[in-house]
Amino acid sequence: MMFIDLRNMLRSVETLPFRLDLETLARNLIGPRELVAAYVFDSKMSMGSDDTSKRLHDKLKYLGFRVMVREAYDSVKGEQKEVDVAMACEMVVHALRGHYDVAIVVSGDRDFIPAIQQVQAAGKRVEVAAFANSVGSAVRQAADKFYELEKIPLLFMHNPPDDPEPENIVGEEEEAA
To answer: For every one of its 177 residues, what pLDDT tens digit does the chain have, with 9 covering 90 and above?
Structure first.
């Protein structure tokens, strides 16, 4: 199973003149293994505000991602709430239920280290994929395998000044991931 912290990935590429292709990312990280499910975790803006992420979420759902949107967004601080905890819970629950052999965590956020350790304690492997600018050595060391996303072809050029919101972040018998 794959668990993607969407905002962490978006922050990692926001200053680059590239778009992140999540569909290609998933294919590259899974390789020849069977993909059980690919979860994307994000937050929803507060009611009444213009939530431009809805189109992105819909597109990801159309492509087969399971989009888990928390309705807790702190507009004063400009940050999402509950998303990391929701992702960590899904990782651990699915591991304990034996739904996968390998968890692929797409985030460099060190908040996931306790969940990674619990998944490993349940006898599962955990692979972490992140950009160098958004991951620390503790996360790299916690993983059974680490992927540097800079080395995977999953970015494509775009014009950032005309496109302020990242709506089009998607592209067109082993152990189960």
So the answer is: 999 999 888 887 777 666 778 888 899 999 999 999 999 998 876 555 556 678 888 999 999 999 998 876 555 555 666 788 999 999 999 999 999 999 999 999 999 999 999 999 999 999 999 988 788 899 999 999 999 988 876 554 444 444 444 444 554 444 566
| Helix axes 113-121 and 83-96, enclosed angle (nearest 10) | 0
CATH number of 2-162: 3.40.50.1010
**Is the CA virtual torsion 168, 45, 161, 3 positive or negative?**
negative
What is d(CA 57, CA 59) in angstroms, rounded to the nearest whole number? 5
